[in-house]
Automatic annotation (TrEMBL):
The keyword Mitochondrion does not apply. Residues 1-22 are annotated as: Disordered. Belongs to the DNA polymerase delta/II small subunit family. Residues 51-177 form the DNA polymerase delta subunit OB-fold domain. The keyword Cell wall biogenesis/degradation does not apply. It comes from the Eukaryota. This is DNA polymerase delta subunit 2. The lineage of its organism: Eukaryota, Metazoa, Chordata, Craniata, Vertebrata.
Length: 196
């Protein structure tokens, strides 16, 4: 690269070939065959397919009919089961969705990377829950904050539940009661004829 630049300028420098034999011997550079062996260290194509949204959506689609039946059994067959986009302020109804628990103290790799320049280690925590944690219910289209008779300390992200209550004017859903799907009935197994 540098010898090409000096040759273009036409001047004499240490990087260009001597103009005459009187200036000293000319050494020919030997060329070697080179094959790069760094391919195994190259970062391959990045894939962001390992997201959990499709798992939550599939779980919600499977659990919605089960939870709707459980909700009708618990709160009566005339209970209105709505999606979040169909909610009306003040209407008593049931909605089925996936819980998301927003926790400010929850460890996050993104927070660690963003705070990477700070050399002080983060203090070890004995608990990750606070009074500021929020429960959010989401379905296929929307999400809504929950408040009322639901213990946020006993709820976890990813649970599919049915909640009964009403949306208030501030956009939050006031929970009066909730239910989860029961365990599926056990598949009957044949009795063993002998114990081995």
């Amino acid at each position: 690269m540098f010898s090409d630049l000096s040759a273009q300028r036409g001047g004499s420098s240490l990087l260009c070939r001597p103009a005459s034999e009187d200036q000293g011997p000319v050494f020919e550079r030997t060329s070697l065959d080179y094959s790069p062996s760094t391919e195994r260290y190259r970062v391959g194509e990045r894939s962001f397919n390992r997201q959990y949204a499709h798992i939550y959506a599939a779980r919600l689609m499977e659990m919605r009919p089960l939870l709707s039946e459980t909700a009708k059994h618990k709160w009566g067959s005339d209970v209105h089961i709505r999606k979040l986009c169909d909610l009306e302020t003040g209407e008593q109804c049931c909605i089925v969705g996936t819980l998301f628990k927003r926790m400010d103290l929850q460890p996050s790799i993104l927070k660690e990377i963003s705070e990477e320049h700070n050399l002080l280690p983060q203090p070890a925590r004995t608990k990750y829950i606070t009074e500021a944690d929020e429960l959010i219910l989401e379905d296929e289209l929307q999400r809504i904050k929950l408040e009322g008779k639901i213990d946020r300390d006993k709820c976890v992200t990813g649970s599919v539940i049915a909640i009964y209550g009403a949306e208030k004017n501030d956009g939050k859903f006031t929970v009066e009661d909730f239910c989860t799907a029961d365990l599926p009935s056990q598949v009957p197994r044949p009795a063993l004829s002998s114990d081995k």
